[in-house]
């Protein structure tokens, strides 16, 4: 089109020049040369001006088309790299359903929050191994090395368990999951763990342990049918309680850390959702859980690392130089307690967000019942690692730690059949074996 107009314009110029030639015909031969040369100059000038104008039109047209194409390309490629959601779509839904598939009659269908965490990984595997459907949810936060969480996710994937990357506060995601799957149970383990980190990042405890817990309860309350919920509270709710061993009806109104306060608040929030909406809720107060795939922020793990690297370890001492002691509980015993809590949980009694009759509300201690002092823990590690620790003993700072924990598990024994069987020596042996394998593999990479 542009070329056609261009040619037409040139044709008109030539016609114009012809009439110019006629009008300006010289009357005398002497003048001819001069007239001719003027005429040629004008002809050339006009040709030059017209061509220049059209060249400009073509260049600007070319630039415009290039910019437009660039813009359109960017628009398309932006849509490709930034999906609206990291979850959703037919293939995602297929994955979710496959992960929730049960392989035994009466198998549970469990949503495990915090599935890429230490306890979540073990509980998910145990459920899957006995034929239950399991779907994991975890936000893979970097409170400790997320590569360990990714390795656990890989392990779960190899066993047919999908762990969705998402936050428990994502209400749209939770709604989508509950629309897609009729979960019989929710094993809620996602939380901001650790006591000392609250000095650095208090908001993370509120985000996960308070707001997140409410978001999970809200989703469960609205689901139809409502699932039964088992969730992780903590021995830390006993706080400054001095009566030993700790029993479920002991005082829990003196938390020594923000972590403990959020777990205690969680127990009260659980009461509310049970009371108003008929959710069946079981809180488990875990006592210092340890074992393979454990948490690097915990003393037994970080001590192992430092001892092997020849670095000093800091051991806290309580008032009057009394050693701190913990009721260390091996992960396999905790898993048995979790599964027993799921199996014995009564059904929730609400529907459509309304309670129809009273529902079950339970709390159990899951501990080992035999506290061990921290220096003894180090003795055992030295023996297993065959390396002497460089001990740096200091007075316990006021950072949220309590001097000792000791569980009475009579209630869990009676009602859940809970019976811890692993002593610290045998449990740490399994941990050290895993630690060496895992870190040898990963440090090679
Ligand atoms: N390990 C123990 O000794 C112990 C003792 C008492 C209580 N607990 C409780 O048991 C549960 C499991 O503990 P753990 O030792 O496996 O800890 P963990 O940190 O290994 O596991 C918790 C997981 O939850 C995830 N998570 C945290 N906030 C989340 C959020 N907002 N949305 C989605 N995922 C989120 C984390 O990424 C992590 O993978 C926690 O509730 C913890 O408070 C543990």
Automatic annotation (TrEMBL):
<feature type="domain" description="NAD-dependent epimerase/dehydratase">
    <location>
        <begin position="110"/>
        <end position="347"/>
    </location>
</feature>
<comment type="similarity">
    <text>Belongs to the NAD(P)-dependent epimerase/dehydratase family.</text>
</comment>
<dbReference type="InterPro" id="IPR001509">
    <property type="entry name" value="Epimerase_deHydtase"/>
</dbReference>
<keyword id="KW-1133">Transmembrane helix</keyword>
<dbReference type="InterPro" id="IPR036291">
    <property type="entry name" value="NAD(P)-bd_dom_sf"/>
</dbReference>
<dbReference type="Pfam" id="PF01370">
    <property type="entry name" value="Epimerase"/>
</dbReference>
<keyword id="KW-0520">NAD</keyword>
<dbReference type="GO" id="GO:0032580">
    <property type="term" value="C:Golgi cisterna membrane"/>
</dbReference>
<keyword id="KW-0413">Isomerase</keyword>
<feature type="transmembrane region" description="Helical">
    <location>
        <begin position="57"/>
        <end position="76"/>
    </location>
</feature>
<protein>
    <recommendedName>
        <fullName>UDP-glucuronate 4-epimerase</fullName>
        <ecNumber>5.1.3.6</ecNumber>
    </recommendedName>
</protein>
<keyword id="KW-0812">Transmembrane</keyword>
<keyword id="KW-0472">Membrane</keyword>
<dbReference type="GO" id="GO:0050378">
    <property type="term" value="F:UDP-glucuronate 4-epimerase activity"/>
</dbReference>
């Amino acid at each position: 089109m542009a070329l056609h107009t261009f040619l037409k314009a040139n044709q008109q110029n030539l016609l114009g020049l012809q009439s110019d030639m006629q009008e300006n015909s010289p009357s005398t031969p002497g003048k001819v040369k001069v007239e001719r040369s003027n005429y040629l100059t004008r002809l050339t000038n006009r040709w030059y001006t017209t061509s220049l104008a059209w060249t400009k039109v073509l260049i600007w047209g070319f630039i415009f088309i290039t910019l437009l194409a660039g813009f359109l390309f960017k628009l398309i490629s932006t849509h490709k790299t930034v999906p609206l959601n990291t979850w959703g779509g037919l293939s995602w839904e297929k994955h979710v359903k496959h992960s929730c598939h049960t392989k035994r009659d009466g198998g549970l269908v469990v949503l495990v929050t915090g599935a890429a965490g230490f306890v979540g990984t073990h509980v998910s595997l145990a459920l899957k191994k006995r034929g239950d459907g399991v779907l994991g949810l975890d936000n893979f936060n970097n409170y400790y090395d997320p590569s360990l969480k990714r390795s656990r996710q890989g392990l779960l994937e190899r066993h047919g368990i999908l762990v969705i990357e998402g936050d428990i506060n994502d209400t749209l995601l939770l709604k989508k999951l509950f629309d897609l799957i009729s979960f019989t149970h929710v094993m809620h383990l996602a939380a901001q763990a650790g006591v000392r980190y609250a000095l650095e990042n208090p908001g993370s405890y509120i985000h996960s342990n308070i707001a997140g817990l409410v978001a999970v309860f809200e989703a469960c309350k609205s689901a139809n049918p409502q699932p039964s919920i088992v969730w992780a509270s903590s021995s830390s709710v006993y706080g400054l309680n001095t009566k030993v061993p700790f029993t479920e009806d002991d005082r829990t109104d003196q938390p020594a850390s923000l972590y403990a306060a959020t777990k205690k608040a969680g127990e009260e929030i659980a009461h509310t959702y049970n009371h108003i909406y008929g959710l069946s809720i079981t809180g488990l107060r875990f006592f210092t859980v340890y074992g393979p795939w454990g948490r690097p922020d915990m003393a037994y793990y970080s001590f192992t690392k430092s001892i092997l690297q020849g670095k000093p370890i800091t051991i806290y001492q309580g008032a009057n130089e009394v050693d701190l002691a913990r009721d260390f509980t091996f992960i396999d015993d905790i898993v048995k307690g979790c599964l027993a809590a799921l199996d014995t949980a009564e059904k929730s009694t609400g529907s459509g967000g309304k309670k129809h009759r009273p529902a079950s509300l339970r709390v159990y201690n899951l501990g080992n019942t035999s506290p061990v002092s921290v220096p003894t823990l180090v003795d055992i590690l030295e023996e297993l690692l065959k390396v002497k620790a460089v001990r740096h003993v200091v007075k316990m700072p006021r950072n949220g730690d309590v001097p000792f924990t000791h569980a009475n598990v009579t209630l869990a024994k009676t009602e859940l059949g809970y019976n811890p069987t692993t002593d610290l020596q045998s449990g740490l042996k399994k941990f050290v074996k895993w630690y060496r394998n895992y870190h040898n593999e990963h440090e090679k990479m």
